[in-house]
Each structure stands twice: as structure tokens, then as C-alpha cells.
Amino acid sequence: MSTPIENSANVLIVDDSLISRKKLRSAVRRLGYDADLAEGGAEGLEALAAKDYDVVLLDIVMPGVDGFDVLRAMKDDPQLRDIPVVVVSSLEEERDSVVQAIEMGAEDFLPKDFDPVLLRARLTASLTKKEFRDQEKEYLVRVERLTAAAEIVETGQFKPESLQIDDLREHKDALGQLAAVFTGMAGEIYQRELRLRKMIHALQGIILVITVGILWGSTPAISRLAANAGATPLALATWVNLFLAASYISIAAARGQFKTFKLKYIGFLAIWTVIAAILQRVVLLFLAGQIEATLLALVATFQGFIVFVFASVTRLEKATPQRLIGLTFGLVGVFVVLFDKLDLSGAGSGWWWLVLSLSLPTLYAIEWVFVAAKKPADLDFLPAIGVMMLMSSFILAPSAILVEGSLFFSDTFGRAEWISLILCVVIAFTMITSFKLVDLAGPVFASQSAYAMTMAGIGWGMLLLGETLSSTAWIAVALIVVGLLLVSPKPDNTEIVIKRSFTK
Amino acid sequence: MVQTAPLGSTHNLEYIPPMAIDQNALKKLLDLVGGDPEDLAEFIEDFLEIAPTLVADMQAGVTAHDWDKVRIAAHTLKSNAKDLGALDLSDLSKTLEAQCKAGDTDTSGALVDQIAQQSTADTAALAEIDPATI
Which residues of A touch B46 (CB under 8 A)? Predict the structure, then answer.
């Protein structure tokens, strides 16, 4: 008689005879296995559904659900079909039943008056097959997961963590090695694309920042030219806004962008109107008539800091020391130029106007943060700016007539009118570019256009107004570029799409 | 082996069941379950309870002409009786199972009566056995 051994396997005994069940249980337990009993086919299937078994000892002749029924149900069930079944039967009397059971998928048979050695052999053989099959299934599952991960990579739209195959690398077999290599390569591809995308993103941002800066930088100079030619601030603001309204609404209507326009946006547009189209415009045009364009350009640089503070307080964007240092670089760059150019050493109206004009960058900052935080996602810029400008025109026009006596600068379309028209076109183009920039790079990075604006303002001042520029401007340009790189655009959260197929 | 009356002669002769229990079968069962006489005693108790139930099932099956029921009861009693050393009872049950399977049930009623007597005799004999002496 063999002695009990340490094994780990769950054996289910299905037999309608109490004595046969108990006899099998004793013998199975003496071999070191766990054994559960089921007194019929139905109870056997219930037990199989409730617990994982490694092998089933199955009687064939039973009332109700017999052994064949159990075997059929197990083979039809993907969860049960791989559990080995040993039919307990008398071969000499039930040869046909045994043959039929084996044809149906039973692993082996055991005589009713079995010998413990034979039972051990049957169970060991069945459990070994089960173990191999389990390993095979586990391997297949790993292959399927790896294939699924490859399919995700093939779509070109993935993040390394979305592949969910990190655990596959832990296996010390060929498939584990393949998973490790695959994961590593997928991660490298992702990082490479990420770097490339960041570079493109930063370049797009820098180009837009410079474009916006150059365009915005020209407006104080053009505004001052208009003012010198006789244009009055409120009337000029009204015409600029009407021009913007007419252009944007026409283009938006032609593009069908008003289809998604909803009345609930009016509240957002009304606030924007007050900030951007009325306060900003009036302050700019008022200041432009009083102080030099270069001075206006100087104060505009504070916009970057104000935006940074607003965006940090409202947690719209991440406030990092690196960004603060970047902003400081930009500011220092501008000061290098301006202190070289301006004489602010004495007390007087220069300082007073400088402080007063700080309201302008503050308004710019408020606008950019407000638009970045509150603009409805499905509201396009073109119809939004168009409607906003139209609303502002209706408020500014009566104000211009009331304060300045007329909406017109003169009786004929002369120098003031031409300069105003150029200003309208420049502002129209600049505004749409600015909001694209905020959309792409975030308000903090976009606020860097203030530096470019300052440099451009000085340049335009030289070109249009005959002002002079120091040779130290190049140092300033270098400082501003470093500042731009340090601030860097807001992170791009969209999933990376790799436009490349590995199978075609 | 105790002499058993021929199956075909049950109409004419009174059947006297043999009461001997095969000690080797009991010893084999005892070895199989680990050699503990208490376990063997439990098997004997189970048999003393089950055998009359199975005989009753056979009788009910005969009355109702439910030969499938008779066959399954005979199948179970056949193997249980063999495990407990009641070899004659096992053989009679085996014959009954074969008759039911073949549809040859003309004499099955009389055979069930014979099984009932044999079962009574064997259970009585088993009840007298002391498992510790096996």
C-alpha cells in the first residue's frame, strides 16, 4: 500500500452510490489529493461551476443526469472542457459505455474495483495532462495579449501604459523576452514621437508668438500714426471693431460656422466684449495718442507676468520656477533695449504714463486667461470674435458720437482713414492668430508674444516713426528667445498618432 | 462459495440464501481506505442502510414496470455488494441489470424477490461481523 504523498489537486467524485463515493474519496485522499463528492450528475455540474477542479472521477450509470450528460455538458463548456475526466466503470460489463465516454472526450477509465496503484497512475497521468494544458492555455493567453498590444501599436494611437503587457516581461521564457523587447521598442517609439511632437509644438508656438508679436507690435505705431493724422480714439475703435465684425461674421457664415452657435454663448461674449473690444481698445487708442510707441511696447511686457500670476492662481496652467525664470529672461531682454533707448532717470510724466499704461497689459492678460478658461469648446473663434466685435460696436458708436462729436474723422477719405483701414486689417489678422496661439500653447506661453511685440514695437517705431534703436537689441533678442524656450508651451495632452504601419 | 439455487427453478424450490461474506473482499476494502476498522464499520453501516432501499427501489420498479429504475438500482447494488463481500447478492444484481438492459424481464420479478432474500441474509451476516477481526 502506498503512503500518502504531498500533492495539490482538487478531485471531484461524481457517483450516485454512497459507498462508491466514499471508497473513492478515501483512496484519493490517501494519495494526498483533495476530494469533493457529488451524488449525481446535476450536483456534479453545480460543483464544477462553483469551484475549480483538476480532475473528475465520473460514474456513468446514474439516475437523472448520467455520466454521459455530465461529460457532454463539460465538453460544451469552454471553462470545463479541459478538465480531465476519468470514467469509473466496469470494463468487462460496460465496455460500450467506456468506449463511448472516451470517444466523447473522457481521458481514461477506472474499474469499479480499482487498485490504489492504478488510481494513482490514472490521476497522475490526468493531472500531468491538465498541467500541460493549463500551461499551454496560459501561454496562448499571453500570446493573445501580446498580439492585442501589437494591434494597438499598429493603429498608431497608443501610450505605453495602454498596452498593459508589463507583467508579460516577468516570464523567463521566449515569450517573456519577446514581450520585453516589444515593450521596450514601443516605449522608445513613443518617446521619440513625443519628443518630435514637442519640438514641432514648441516651434509652432514660437513662430506664432513672433508673428503675433510683430503684428501686435505694429498697432501702437499705426494707432499713433492714425492719431497724428487726426483719428479720434473712440471713433477709431468703433470702426476697427465694425471692420472686424463684418470680416469675421462674413467668413464664419461662409464656412457654416454659425450652425453650432448657441444663444447661451452670449453671456461669455458679453464679458469678452467689455474686456477686449471696449476697455482694451479705448485704453490703447487713448494711450497711443499720449505716449511713445516704444513706451507702450515696454509696458506690454508686463503682460507675461500678469498672465503667469492669473494662470497660476486659477490653476489654469502649471506654475513652475522654470517658467518664471523664462519670463524674467524675456523681461530683462526688453529692458536691455529700453533702458538703453529711453531716459527714465528723471521724475516726470514719463514715469506717470508708464504706470498708467500698465492697465493695458493687465487687460490683455485678463482677456487671455478668461478666453483660455471660459471659452466653450464648441465655439469657433471666427463667429465668436465677429459677434463680440459687433456687440462692442453698438456700445462704442454712441459713445464716440457723444464724446467726440462724430464717427468720422473728416469729410473725405484721407490719410487718417487710410491708416485706420490698415490698422483694421492688421488687428483683424492679429486677433485670430493670437487666439490660435492661446489655443495651441496656452496663455502663459502665448503671453510671451508681448516680448516679441515689444521688440517689434521698437522696430516699427524706427520704421514708421523714425525712432532709433541701439545695437544691444541683439542681446535682447537672445534673452527673449531663451525666455521663450524656458517657458515652453502647455503640454499637449492628445494621444500620439504614429502615421506608420509595421505590417503593410 | 455457498450453493445457490438455479435462477430458473425459483418457482419450484424454496430459495435458501447463502449467508457467507467474502472476507477477502472486506480486507481489500479495508486496505483501500487505509486500514482503519472504524472506516470499514462505517461502510458496513452504510450498506445495511442502503441495500434495503435499493431492493425497495427494485420492487417498486417491477410493480410499475419501470425497468430503468430496476436496472439502476441493480447496478448500484451490484457494485456495493461486491465491495462488501456479498458476492452472491452482487451476482444476482448483475443478472437483473443484464435482464433489464436486454429487455428480457419475464423472470425479473422473481429475481427481485430472490435478491430481497439474499440481501436480508447478507445484511444480517454483515451486521454480525466485527471489523477489527478482518
Answer: 18-19, 22
Chains A, B: CB contacts within 8 A come to: 56
Chain A residues inside the 8 Å CB shell of B33: 22-23, 26-27, 30
**C-alpha cell recorded at residue B14:** 424454496
Burial code (b: 16+ CB inside 10 Å, e: under 16) for A453-488 equals bbbbbbbbbbeeeebebeeebeebbebbbbbbebbb
Compare all CA atoms of chain B with the CA of A20 and give the residue at the minimum distance.
B80
| Per-residue pLDDT reduced to its tens digit, A188-236 | 888 888 888 888 877 887 888 788 878 877 887 788 788 888 888 888 8
- The pLDDT mean for chain A works out to 81
Judge: B79–A30 Cβ closer than 8 Å, yes or no.
Answer: no
CA distance A372 to A494: 17
Give the pLDDT of residue A368.
Answer: 76
How buried is residue B104: exposed, middle or buried, by Cβ count under 10 Å (0-12/13-18/19+)?
exposed
ipTM tops 0.90: no
- Helix axis angle for A415-446 and A473-487, nearest 10°, is 50
Q: Tell me, what's the pLDDT at A224?
A: 79
Asked if A19 and B42 come within 8 Å (Cβ–Cβ), the reply is: no
Domain limits, CATH 3.40.50.2300, in chain A:
10-136
CA-based nearest distance B46→chain A, Å = 7
Sketch out chain B's domains with CATH numbers. 34-133 (1.20.120.160)
Architecture of domain A10-136: 3-Layer(aba) Sandwich (3.40)
Q: Indicate the residue of B39, B47, B50 with minimum beta-carbon distance to A26.
A: B39
Rg for chain A, CA atoms, rounded:
40
From the list B77, B92, B75, B84, the residue with the least C-alpha distance to B20 is B84
